[in-house]
Amino acid sequence: MTKDIHSARADFPILKQSVNDHPLVYLDNAATTQKPQVVIDALVDYYTRLNANIHRGNHSLAVQATEAYERARRKVAGYINAERNHEVIFTRGTTESINLLAYTYGEKFVQAGDEVIVTQLEHHSNYVPWQQMCLRRGATFRILPFNEHGELDLALFERMLNEKTRLVAVNHVSNSLGTVNPIEEIIRLAHAHEVPVLVDAAQSVQHIAHDVQSMDADFYVFSGHKMYGPMGIGIFYGKEKWLEALPPFLSGGEMIDSVTPEKVTFNVLPYKFEAGTPNVAQAIGLGVAVDYLKQFDPLELQKYEEDLLAYGLNLLSEIPDLIIYGSPSHRSGILPFNVNGIQHYDMGVLLDTMGIAVRTGQHCTQPIMDALHISGTVRASLALYNNREDLEKLADGVRRVIKMLKR
Amino acid sequence: MPGIQELQKDLSDDFALLANWEEKYEYLIEMGMDMPAMKPESKVDENLVKGCQSSVWFDVKCQDGILIFEADSDSLVVKGMVAMLHKLLNNQPAKEVLEAELSVFEELGLWRHISSQRSNGLTAMVAHLRAEAVDCLAKGG
Q1: ipTM strictly over 0.95?
Q2: Which of A11, A94, A403, B131 could form a disulfide linkage to A202, CB 3.0–4.6 angstroms apart?
């Protein structure tokens, strides 16, 4: 028996409040999603009854906390269909996961003259770490551009792949335009050249397909806080053969096997990549968020969110002088727009006075804004608890702002 | 010319008549629209105030120890803030500008909507005007 999506909103206590004397309309979910009560309870419960440092103490609390932490790892592994639990590494979030790979992979596998491919659709966190790694290693940083629809050109991508290509880093869904990239096809083309692919799933794992084996991702990274889990926890997934081949990222406690003044032998997976005391409560909270999400039928959830997005885009497109950015054939979760003659910043501040939370600016994607020749956009972004009324309020709010500013 | 404190009180009283946030911002935006226009040739990079999310220009002159300025922004909300600063600080002695406690922004709560921005535009604007006031005082000897 799956849970009814329409019942979800009641699970999120923060949505019941008023902001600036209006009921909150939260449409900044691509920045972070709100948390269901069960996740909040899990954090409180951990510190109320379970807190201990994991993997070392042999007292009861330490054993229970370790079990809960490892159970969370298994839940995440199940959610993304990882073949092995130890392919799932806990990090602080997507940014740390990408940096982990940029440093370790760069050190081991990238030499002067090699090439790394990213796309023009990337968030800075899947762009700058690769650019910097290429600078350190003397490698070439190559950027696959997007076309007038906000989509990647796969024919061009195929031509960019060559014997010098060492890695492809690409998002599944663009945080700025919402473009759903053809990830299976990108991976297939890269693999044909024996090039591994990192998938930035920060904006996709909570909305659309997230099966790492069926897409054959080599590396797959995301943040807990954008999928109804706590902040400060994220996932770095890598195929076992890659994780075995990579050197550790951070060194310290937990990640070692034996230590002498001369040398160190490293711990087995996944601990080799989890130096120091991890965010145990947050990891457990992420496991609970996964449980929460798994109550819904995934296809039904995806259809609900896609219908909602189409409804919202349609409402906005009826507003005179409003521009929606990108027209990809498949879009997820994101409504990026501006109104002619109105600064995105003004739109955001004034919508906030009506209790409507959106984000404005560059969304950490300056290359996209530069390509579109704009200084930024207004971005409304969806989660499973949003409904048509939220989008009607957004459209009404935008019309009112236009009235306020254009006279 | 009324003093800065008196002008702050007037602004405060004006805003007190407005029922909600929307009306307050509407009023703020109107203040921006009613502000004397800045000469287009003054909108040059050297008059841009760094640290603001939107573009803000200040063209400040010092005459006999008095600050006289024109200002503009490409954001209408920020322009409203600029107009408030203009109402309070334009044509005021540099010494007064330096010593003024600008409490009205915080008092009206308009501050908090922009203070969560990565760089606080209002702080940058006020710091810019204070630096100009210091120069003006130095010139006046």
Answers
A1: no
A2: A94
The CATH number for A269's domain is 3.40.640.10
B52 labelled catalytic: yes
Residues sharing a CB contact under 8 Å with residue A239, sequence separation 6 or more, in sequence order: A83, A87, A218, A219
Domains in chain B (CATH in brackets) are 4-140 (3.90.1010.10)
For helices B4-16 and B76-89, give the axis angle rounded to 10 degrees.
140
Residue of B15, B28, B52, B77 to mutate when probing chain A, most A C-beta within 10 A = B77
Closest partner residue to B113 among A349, A404, A405, by Cβ?
Answer: A349
If you count them, how many residues does chain A have? 407
Query: Where would I find the H helices in A138-279?
Result: 154-160, 183-192, 212-215, 240-245
The CA-atom distances, in angstroms, between A405 and each of A311, B10, B11 are 26, 24, 21
> For residue A336, which phi and psi values (nearest 5 degrees)?
-100, 125
Say if CB B25 and CB B43 are below 8 A apart: no
Question: What band does B118 get if pLDDT is binned at 50, 70 and 90?
Answer: very low
* Domain with A127 in it: 40-294
When divided into structural domains, chain A yields a total of 2
- pLDDT tens digits, A74-130: 999 999 999 999 999 999 999 999 999 999 999 999 999 999 999 999 999 999 999
